[in-house]
Amino acid sequence: MRNIRLILEYDGAAYCGWQRQINGLSIQEVLEEKIGVMTGEAAKVIGSGRTDAGVHAMNHAANFKTASKISADGFLRGLNSLLPQDIAVKEVCEVPADFHARYSALEKVYLYRILNDRIRSPLHHLYTWFVSHDLDVAAMEKCLPVLQGVHDFAAFMASGSSVKSTTRMVSSLKLTRKDKIIEFEIRANGFLRHMVRNIVGTLVEVGQGRVTPERFADILQAGDRNMAGMTAPPQGLFLKEVIY
Asked: Which residues contact 7 (CB under 8 A, 6 or more apart)?
């Protein structure tokens, strides 16, 4: 059996997320179906992580095993001819048998985009969180050093999650503003469910003056989800990169 790695870009607006679900169409389901068409096999695709409904990806890694002799370039051209316009395969390569898109990953990078303007934009509404209240980016930036390093991120984890540990290591963060678009980028060795969206929701409350940077630090230390801000909507979130 060959082990094939894919790098995918997709617009998640029309999907229930990456993982197969009974209540809607997923990226995984569409991809497995098209691989099956090409190979004649029942494909099982492993993703580097589970993106939520409406979340997008610039470089989502995945892998699958196959007995097919189709070349990497053949999979690239064939899948892109079969997949819908909102999913594309950017790269295909053969990898060692023990490569696992999720467990072999060292770090992931997520990007969150906010449209900060008085009037909503129909051209941005599927790819940003529209926030009409003026945001103090300087105040939001003061919170970033608090997040860097190894911390317990329980305060920013969605309720109902079952993980062995809520400790993660954040290696870099960046917050930039260009005209009306604010971008938050975070790189870590792993992420809890809704962790990025909960951090962004709390940062926006800091930008609105409802939470101070000092209070933000207290929220992280307390580890209490009820103290943190709202969960930012999914459409502003992008899986930017997976590092191996």
From this structure: 59, 60, 61, 89, 90, 91, 92
- In angstroms, rounded to a whole number, what is the distance separating the alpha carbons of residues 112 and 236? 5
By the 8 A CB rule, do 49 and 62 touch? no
- Over the range 94-122, which residues count as b (16 or more CB within 10 Å of their CB) and which as e? eeeeebebeebbebbbbbbbbbbbeeeee
Distance CA 140, CA 207 (A): 6
pLDDT digits (tens, 9 = 90+) for 43-77: 999 999 989 999 999 999 999 999 999 999 999 99
Amino acid at 49: G
CA dihedral (219, 222, 224, 226) positive or negative: negative
Minimal CA–CA distance to 172: which of 147, 196, 151? 147
Q: Which of 141, 149, 119, 134 is nearest to 220 (CA)?
A: 149
Residue 52 is a catalytic residue: yes
Q: Which residues neighbour 201 within 8 Å (Cβ) at sequence distance 6 or greater? A: 228, 229, 230, 231, 232
199 in Cβ contact with 128 (< 8 Å)? no
Please, what is the end-to-end C-alpha distance for the chain in angstroms? 22
Residue among 11, 52, 73, 117 flagged as catalytic: 52
pLDDT in tens, 136-176: 999 999 999 999 999 999 999 998 777 899 999 999 999 99
DSSP three-state, residue 110: strand
Q: Which two tokens stand for residue 121?
A: 């934009």
What lies within 8 Å, CB to CB, of 23 at 6+ separation is 16
